[in-house]
From TrEMBL:
Name of the protein described by the UniProt record: Photolyase/cryptochrome alpha/beta domain-containing protein
Domain Photolyase/cryptochrome alpha/beta: 1-121
Region called Disordered, residue ranges: 153-173
UniProt organism field: Deinococcus oregonensis
TM region positions: none
Alphabetical list of SUPFAM superfamilies matching this protein: Cryptochrome/photolyase, N-terminal domain
Length: 173
């Protein structure tokens, strides 16, 4: 059995379940050209993903590649290059994820596709309408009982800056 790993935007972590299962397996991240052509993705987001893959590659001894193109096609080529019998990926909640998996299965019928459950940040299963309300409900669990700002103090003698009016009665500061 030879395995390869598909890294996607939601699996860029050294503790990713697919990577953890096969740390010695070659991994591939694909910048999805058709998706990028039809959606406006800010350059900082693309740079963040590139940096994440680069950091993963530096932390692993196994090959880690970045390609640009159609994700199913690039993954199929990658699996063939390594004579892979299995493709491992961590689940992703987007509709494109299932379509990509279907495209891989069509291109490589003999390739076994294994989808790993994603890591959960919290056990919370309720609706999330606003981040702050969600965070108030889960911060104790996520931070192990702590407050995000616990232990942080202002330097002695420092007080938060208060807005002041200048000589023309305009707010400044």
């Amino acid at each position: 059995m030879t395995a390869v790993i598909w890294l996607h935007g939601d699996s860029l972590s050294i503790t990713d379940p697919a990577l953890s299962t096969h740390p010695e397996a070659p991994a591939l991240f694909v910048f999805d050209r058709p998706f990028l052509s039809s959606h406006r993705i800010a350059f900082p987001r693309l740079a963040f993903m590139y940096g994440g893959v680069r950091d993963l590659a530096a932390a692993r001894s196994a090959p880690t590649e970045i390609r640009v193109g159609s994700v199913p096609e690039e993954l199929a080529h990658f699996a063939c290059e390594y004579d892979a019998t299995e493709l491992h990926a961590t689940e992703n909640p987007t509709p494109e994820f299932e379509a990509i998996l279907q495209g891989i299965r069509e291109r490589c019928p003999g390739l076994r596709v294994v989808v790993h459950s994603a890591e959960r940040l919290t056990t919370y299963n309720g609706p999330v309408t606003k981040f702050f309300g969600f965070w108030k409900k889960v911060q104790t669990e996520v931070l192990g009982g702590g407050d995000l700002f616990r232990g942080m103090e202002m330097p002695s003698g420092a007080a938060p800056a208060k807005p002041q009016r200048d000589h023309r009665n305009r707010w400044r500061g």
